[in-house]
Amino acid sequence: MRKRLMVAALLAIAAIVAAIQTGGSQARVSGSEASAAPSGTVTLNGWQTSPAEETKLSKVVSDFEASHPNIKVNYTSITGDYQAAMLAKFAARKPADVFYVDAADFADWVRQGVLQNLDSYVKASKFKTKPFYKNLLNTFKYKGHYYGFPKDWSSLGMEVNTRLLGNNPIPKTWAQLKSVASKITVPGGKPICLSADWARLMPFVYQAGGNGQFKSANTAPFRTAVNYYVGLLKSGLAAQPSQTGSGWCGEAFGKERAAFAFEGNWMFPTMATFPGVKFATAPLPMNKKRGNLAFTVSYSMAKDSKNKPAAWELLKYLVGKQGMQQWVSLGLALPTRTDVHAVAGRGAFTKYPASVHGWGNQPGFRHVWNDVANNELTAVIDGKESVNGMLAKIAAAAR
Fold first, then answer.
1. What angle do CA 238, 242, 248 make, to 5 degrees?
2. Least packed by Cβ within 10 Å: which of 18, 222, 312, 367?
3. Given phi > 0 = left and psi -120 to 50 = alpha, else beta, which region is 281?
């Protein structure tokens, strides 16, 4: 009897120990799982072009926080010189965890080693990259590695004043543009508005078969494009904005002092201030091939981020289908994913995604563009510099 009681007691003790061990094991597993889940605070930096944009991004961030209750996002919109502010943060090793990277800065920043290689995060989370437009995705790759994902983009379209166009067809080629423009009279302006800016000229370089790299400026496609573009101005078929009493081509177009303008998705809010103007948006006219620019920005992660797991969760959400659909619903920019739909009326900008190229994705871009290329283009238009002289100087500055 005593033996049976002793055995029973031992069995009871064993059961209690087993239960404790099991509970402890479960507690340890739960704790492990909890610690593996990203948590904490993530900082996000960007810039804004309008109050509506700020409101929309704040709403997207709030929705992220609601679906990720263990992560808090501190978002700050940097005013003033964004590039200078970010470079200062990089130098102090105190950048935001996630931030905008303009394609114009990507080539320099990735070479400076301030951006986090995202390959391991993509692989571990099985993040699908296939839905992104290939050319936009490649804009933020370096040596085959991901250093950001495009948050949105805008390309250029050809805005056409349908009243001034009359019975003429919408041009589809360079030759047709010249032909139609020669048949249009624009009181107080010219048929075409063109800016002394390579951000409008460069698509013509791609259309002429060029690679769009300033270091290749001294080549035949660049020469062909410049001669055509400047030729429109010299022939009187085009005018610069200042010649129409306007600050930029969008304003000239809105004032009906140009029948054609080459601007982006941002023309829609602009034209809302000119409600009486009837216009259509068409793809850019082509030459040998199609060519266009993608004004795009990535969400990237800092190499010095203090909370990379949570930063990746935020980044992944912002460029994911749900976050991007909400963001582009504002209509200020276009989606970079094929499974996210742009707002109505943007077809001309998205029709030929294979022909777009990230604007500025080349080392030292801002210096060459702002300090050399645009100044030289102005000199050519003013008759103070030859086309060949300009191209040689641009190529030399880009080396």
1. 85
2. 18
3. beta
CB 394 within 8 A of CB 373: yes
- Name the nearest CA neighbour of 347 among 254, 263, 281, 272: 281
The structure tokens listed for 72 are: 């808090």
d(CA 73, CA 61): 7
pLDDT digits (tens, 9 = 90+) for 17-70: 333 333 333 333 333 333 478 999 999 999 988 888 889 999 999 999 999 999
pLDDT in tens, 311-342: 999 999 999 999 999 999 888 889 999 999 99
Return the closest-CA partner of residue 343 out of 325, 358, 367, 355: 325
Query: Considering only CA atoms, which of 200, 135, 159 is closest in space to residue 349?
Result: 159
| Sign (positive or negative) of CA dihedral 101, 367, 214, 351 | positive
Can you tell me whether residue 132 is helix, strand or coil?
strand
Structure tokens at 208: 């002429």
Residues in the chain: 399
Token match 């795009």: residue? 296
Regarding pTM above 0.85, the answer is yes
3-state secondary structure of 354: helix
Final residue of a domain: which of 350, 373, 388?
350
How many other C-beta atoms are found inside a 10 Å radius of the C-beta of residue 113?
Answer: 11
Q: Which domain holds residue 304?
A: 40-153+294-350
Same domain, 196 and 184: yes
Same domain, yes or no, for 145 and 162? no
